[in-house]
Amino acid sequence: MATIVTMPRLSDTMTEGTVAAWLKKVGDKVSEGDILAEIETDKATMEFESFNEGTLLYIGIPEGETAPVDSLLAIIGKEGEDVSALISGGSAAPVAAESTPAPVEEKVAEVVAPTQAAALPKGVVVVTMPRLSDTMTEGTVATWLKKVGDKVSEGDILAEIETDKATMEFESFNEGTLLFIGIQEGNTAPVDSLLAIIGPAGTDVSGIAENYKVGGAAPTATVEKEEVKATSSDNSVEAVEAVTDGKRILASPLAKKIASDKGIQLAQVKGTGENGRIVKSDIENFTPATTAAPVATEAKAPEAVKTEAPKVFVPAGEVFTEEIKNSQMRKIIAKRLAESLFTAPHYNLVIEVTMDEAMQSRAVINSVPDTKVSFNDMVIKACALALKKHPKINSQWREDAIIINHHVNIGVAVAVEDGLVVPVLRFTDAMSLSQIGASVRDLAGRAKNKKLLPTEMEGSTFTVSNLGMFGITEFNSIINQPNSAILSVGAIVEKPVVKNGQIVVGNTMMLSLACDHRTIDGATGAQFLQTLKQYIENPVTMLA
Known about the structure:
This protein is of the alpha+beta class and 544 residues long. The chain has helices at residues 84-88, 101-119, 206-211, 253-262, 280-284, 328-343, 356-366, 375-389, 433-448, 522-537; strands at residues 3-6, 16-22, 29-30, 35-40, 45-49, 54-59, 66-68, 72-77, 125-128, 138-144, 151-152, 157-162, 167-171, 176-181, 188-190, 194-199, 228-229, 243-244, 247-248, 346-354, 395-397, 402-404, 410-412, 414-416, 419-421, 424-425, 462-466, 485-499, 502-516. The two termini are 57 Å apart. Mean pLDDT is 80; it is low at 90-118, 213-246 and 291-301.
């Protein structure tokens, strides 16, 4: 018997998904565990695995299209099986008692209709600022794609809204005319603020706009919420800004990535998508025009004039500044780090570690085929073992108690284009050096491609931040709460050191431990650093 496969709910905030790519086509054999498709949610692009065996008989959502959770995604069954009856009820969930988001939406509309009828003119819908992520408290309107007076059809993109995690397109599920815009481009407003009003052309909505309570629901009615389409497929696109001659370029993330890989400037590509957006096919079909290399023009230097004294310099020029709007991610980073710095009494302990033995040990380890271990991996492993010996460092502060974590989950700070994320290595103390190295490379790579799962950034008990690769020899970090400490790792420096009363050339590294004085006393932090120093300077002891 054929099995209906529906659009899965891949995150707690997901209401719809976009099929980025199908890895199977109709007629292909499917085994349990095979990857059917790549699905983009509001947080990441994830592989969708089949839990059934059989033949792929039907695809309900083509590549690049978006559909609500529980919509018909595919049908798997026996080869040649008739599935026309299932397709005709395609949006139904596999269990008859369940319902899809669309009927739920209608049900909600029916419940609130009597109230709305008394407060809103017929056919008028109030659209509010949606909550697009679990941490979102406000949103910024990056761009309006419709203006007042424009016709709006179901599925049209009204605006691009920037949250603390991404910029997403806001899709209309109503038809009518855009009668009112409540939040102008570039402005920020709390969730549930009045965003727009849609209704029949010519309807007077001035009273609705004036009486609407900013930051909350309409005073006399519960209004229908617009749904949001997360963006990262060919045609469901995320706004990507570039400025050339004052014009803004819009491109899908996939198009941007392909252009970057091929070294193509987006400004040279003509977009064929909605509102001139650049999509995947535009990049693949792009043929660069031959342009003459720019010739640098130099001002002719004035002929030397014989003078007895140098000329007095007269300052001349133009004062130039640039204003860059803060992204939601940058706002959240600023808010949380400020809270950490001003609520937790920070202090820093610094220790210098000799790295000669570690360098020799790393060279031996990396001589093993298919093995690659970095100094950062060795520091992470040493931290995990030291935390097991000093569990007070692996703690959290609460007003009524101090929580001591006897499990070790180390967060590794990773710089990304828009800010900083901290993926977590769970049960780090049980991992080998090569496992730590492979896991860090995987997490860091997916962090930079925005493909980390939310669960992979939660639950850290201690954090490591390394700027040594940038030549930074020593720095102090802000604690990543609710952790009680964070280790800052500097660069390895070759310099004169004293050994056995003789000055010789040695390699050293500076470590700085930022501690929360509410949970960690100075002596406790110092003892932890002594143990950490012992492990790093004698890597063989990590095997004991």
